[in-house]
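Notebook, student rotation project (T.W.).
Task set for the rotation: take a protein with a known small-molecule partner, predict the structure of the complex, and write up what can be learned from the model alone. Partner molecule chosen: flavin mononucleotide. Sequence and SMILES entered below by T.W., checked by me.
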Amino acid sequence: MRTLIVHYTPRNERSNTRKLVEAFRSEIKNSEIEELNLSRDAPDLFSEERLTAYIQRNYLGAELDHDQKKSVAKMDRMTEQLRSADIAVVAYPMYNFSMPASVKAWFDSVMLKGQTWDVREGRYVGLMDGKKALVLVTSGGFYDKDPTASLEHALSLGKAEFHFMGYSDVRGILAGGMNAGDDSKGSALMGYVGDVQKIAREWYGTNTQKT
Ligand SMILES: Cc1cc2nc3c(=O)[nH]c(=O)nc-3n(C[C@H](O)[C@H](O)[C@H](O)COP(=O)(O)O)c2cc1C
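Predicted structure of the complex:
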């Protein structure tokens, strides 16, 4: 089994999000682990050249020349990395009600037609059937009820992308309240760490069945 951990946590050791990632990692059993740190290995954006190469190859079936292949090489590398994983964990903070641009660029890099999704008989089909995905998001505020619930586009978008790619089991945790004082943030984080570990134990068969 292979697990891919993708994270955007540029605050490193001080990152709230990183704590959830480490909580998950500590429960992984019997799996190779691969890590992609998006603040150190930034995904490419769809420049004119890259988008043209992608459309020509993935929509029109054309053969790419050397320079075109090179232009989409990083997107292909990230896509292959995701395709080879049975379990994908993607973790990031909420920025301006959505995901950080680097995380969106990663989704744009891996959601390639013919690789992770396709169109068959006029319908969109996800190609990642049988795989699991977990999206971990931390935010300063709370988004579980109105009037802020409608502003939440960080977790909902991440989960939607995995559903679109056909993942069979898509989970998500939005750890709100990270801008609160240290005491209430600390106890909230402990609760979220428990939620993350519970999912990992279920997926890696290390659930002790304690209730
Ligand atoms: C650039 C930036 C934008 C942010 N935007 C929001 C936001 O829209 N809503 C929110 O609740 N928190 C927002 N925050 C707070 C972070 O989501 C929160 O502190 C998060 O836990 C930071 O994660 P980290 O500790 O892993 O860096 C923002 C923080 C930064 C740095």
